Every structure is written in structure tokens, then in C-alpha cells.
Amino acid sequence: MVAEVTVPMNFGRHLLNSPTHSNITLRTSEGGEVRASSVIMSFNSPVIGHMTGDLHMTSVDLLEFSREAVGLFVDAAYSGTAENITREIFRDLNKISHVFEVTWLTEKCLEFFKDLAESVIAPSYPDLVYLFDE
Questions:
Q1: SS3 for 39?
Q2: Residue 120: which region, alpha, beta or left (left: phi > 0; alpha: psi -120 to 50)?
């Protein structure tokens, strides 16, 4: 009997972009592409599970998102961590995690934002604009 997979789980970043295991292509803005395993992505996202398992899709257009944000999304799915979130890609990563229903990553994005908001002691105008925009 196979044990149930609990996400997030570290599947290993060494499998990223493996020509053998990467059977789904995520197309990003600027013509970028991120390749990943549909199985690993499906463990994290029921939406990707439906797209690949039921609809037999082998590529997904994420053209409104940067390659950096999509790459971090895939890296998070493989590693089980949400390392390297920055102010610049927070919005995209948060939106991707909501769209693909990756609840643990949505929670990590919320933690990042809360920590960021709490770290602003003497807010500058750009800090306030960023916090209010998000």
C-alpha cells in the first residue's frame, strides 16, 4: 500500500527540468517556459491535477506571470518550501497559488505579507504604497 502524500513535501529540486520527468510546460510572459512534472504539480494543486489528468493538457499558458514567479511556484511545489519570496514577485506568486488552489503556498504568501507589514516601523511613502497596493 502506498502512503498518502501530504503536501508540502520535498520531492527534490534535482528533478526540475528533467527531460525524463518534466511532462508539462508552463508558458510565462516574455516567452519563457518552465518545465515540471505533472505528478508533482498535481500533488500540490487539484487544478493542475484536473488539467493534466482529466483534460490531458501538456502545457499551460501563464502569460501574465513572469518566469521568475512561475519558477518559484514550481520550485515551491518540488521543495515543499516557499523560500525566496520577494516584494517584486509576491503578488504574482500569491495569485498563482490562489488560481491553482495551492493552499499551503497561499498561507506562506500571507505569512510573508504579514511579516513584511509588521517589519515596517517608520514607513516611507513607497512602503505605504506597496502595502496598500497589495
A1: helix
A2: beta
All three cell numbers of 80, joined, read: 515543499
Average pLDDT over residues 68-96: 93
Q: What residues does 62 pair with on adjacent strands? A: 28
Q: Is 0.85 surpassed by the pTM of this model?
A: no
Q: 57: which 3 cell numbers?
A: 493538457
For residue 80, CA distances in Å to 11, 48, 57, 69, 129 come to: 8, 16, 24, 16, 31
Q: Which three cell numbers stand for residue 84?
A: 525566496
Query: Do 8 and 81 meet the contact criterion of CB atoms below 8 Å apart?
Result: yes
Number of CB atoms found within 10 A of residue 106's CB: 18
C-alpha 32: how far from chain center: 15
CA of residue 19 relative to chain centroid, distance? 21
Q: Binning pLDDT at 50, 70 and 90, where does residue 1 land?
A: very low
